[in-house]
Each structure stands twice: as C-alpha cells, then as structure tokens.
Specification:
Blueprint (H helix, E strand, L loop, with lengths): L5 H7 L8 H14 L12 H8 L3 H13 L3 E4 L5 E4 L8 H11 L1 H23 L4 H16 L5 H15 L3 H19 L5 H19 L3 H23 L3
Antiparallel strand pairs: 1-2
Helix pairs in contact: 1-9, 2-4, 6-8, 6-9, 6-10, 6-11, 7-8, 7-10, 8-9, 10-11
C-alpha cells in the first residue's frame, strides 16, 4: 500500500521546521520517493493531508509540487480519480557526485552508519519480540518477495520498503521514525551503489534470514542477521568510495 503504515507516513511527512518552507517541502516529498515509500504510479496523499502533516500552506505545497512536476518526478491529474502521482524517482548520483557527497558529510558519515546499525538492529530484535498480527506477517512476506522479484532499477527502493516494514513490525512509532531518519541520511549514498549481482544475491539471503527470524520469534537471531546485513552494506559503500 502506498505510504505503508500510519507510522511510516508520519515519519516521512514530518513537519517542516526550517525557515525555507518551500525547499524543505520539496525535500520531504522527494524523500518519500527516494525511499520507495511512494513508487512510480502511486498517488501521494491528498493536499489537505500533506499541508496538515507538513505544517505548511497550500500555496507552498502547490509550488513544491509544480517544481517536482517540472523536473519530471510527479504529475497532477484532475477529476474524480485525480491527484498527484509519482512518475519516477531521481536518478542515482554518479560516482564523482557520490564521493563528493560522502566527503562533504565527513565524520557525519560514520555517525550515520552507526545510527543506522543501532536503530535497525534494534528494530529487527523488537519485531521478533512483538506479537505480530497476520497483516504484519503478510506485509513482511510481501516486502521480502518484492525485493527478490524486482528488477535492478527498483531494488534500493524495494530494499528500503522491507526495512521500514521490519521497523513498523516492532510496534514503536518512535523507532519507526528513527529508522526512517537513518535511511534519509544515507538514501542518496545507498541508492548510488552499483547493482552487483553477487552482492544482491547475498543481501537477499540475509534479508530472508532476518524475516525468518522475526516470524519465528527469535530476537537474538534477528538482531544478529540484521547486524551482518548492515555491516555488509556499510563495507560495500566504503569499498565503492575507495575507503579501507
């Protein structure tokens, strides 16, 4: 379902805080697309809901949507079945852009990777401890199947949807918001990592191990499997950046 759970939607479309409401609104909307919470063909929430969640005026929202439409990311349709629909996500950064972005982050990159490790491993553990509903179990299974089945072009977004479903299964909106925040900090870097067949196969084996442990109610195994997975992704990112 576009947007996922209420906790995921709330975390993605959190209130605009800075002085430049227009720029931050564009950023918020793009984050939802980059993360794959809203995929091509999905309809964004209605304007009334977005203005309420973001804490902005309808004028600011419409200006931001026009900017995204001009860039070819969304389109607005009128009529009974109208709304704003996602056309495509932004293109991943090329290698030079990626290394420049990582360099600009400096020590914040290490901090972001540490933050991700803590919150995602905690989310996997708590999801395995939770009393999952049938809907949550089906959501995890569907997200896992989607990652395995999707083409390389949509893999990173499908991967993120699985990780957010794991966080949501933990049953803590604060934890879900933290996982969304950790993904937002790294999304451009992660989306720019090349699609290497061997690495994707290994990642999918790890994904399956994580989900199996959660569904089996094995918190220690779920945490360990997620630990191995995020450590591997961090190593792959550093390798692509040419770091030791």
């Amino acid at each position: 379902m576009p947007g996922g759970s209420p906790a995921i939607t709330a975390a993605v479309f959190r209130a605009v805080r800075t002085g430049n409401a227009f720029e931050e609104t564009v950023e918020r909307l793009l984050e939802g697309v980059k993360l794959g919470v809203y995929a091509p063909g999905d309809r964004l929430p209605p304007e009334r809901e977005l203005t309420r969640r973001l804490g902005i005026s309808r004028i600011t929202l419409r200006e931001a949507l026009r900017e995204l439409a001009a860039a070819g990311y969304v389109e607005t349709k009128r009529g009974r079945f109208g709304g704003t629909f996602v056309i495509r996500p932004p293109d991943p950064m090329v290698h030079d852009e990626l290394t420049a972005a990582a360099r600009n982050m400096g020590s914040q990159l290490d901090d972001a990777l540490t933050f991700r490790r803590v919150v995602e491993c905690g989310a996997a553990e708590m999801a395995a401890r939770a009393s999952l509903t049938m809907q949550q179990r089906e959501s995890l299974a569907e997200c896992l199947a989607a990652v395995h089945a999707c083409a390389a072009g949509g893999y990173r977004q499908a991967d993120t949807r699985l990780h957010l479903a794991i966080a949501d299964a933990a049953g803590s909106p604060l934890l879900t918001a933290s996982v969304v925040e950790s993904r937002v900090r790294l999304v451009d870097l992660l989306n720019a990592i090349p699609m290497l067949g061997t690495n994707l196969e290994h990642a999918n084996v790890q994904h399956a191990s994580i989900v199996r442990a959660i569904l089996a109610g094995d918190p220690e195994r779920a945490r360990q499997a997620m630990e191995e997975h995020v450590a591997g992704t961090a190593a792959l990112l550093r390798g692509f950046l040419g770091e030791s």
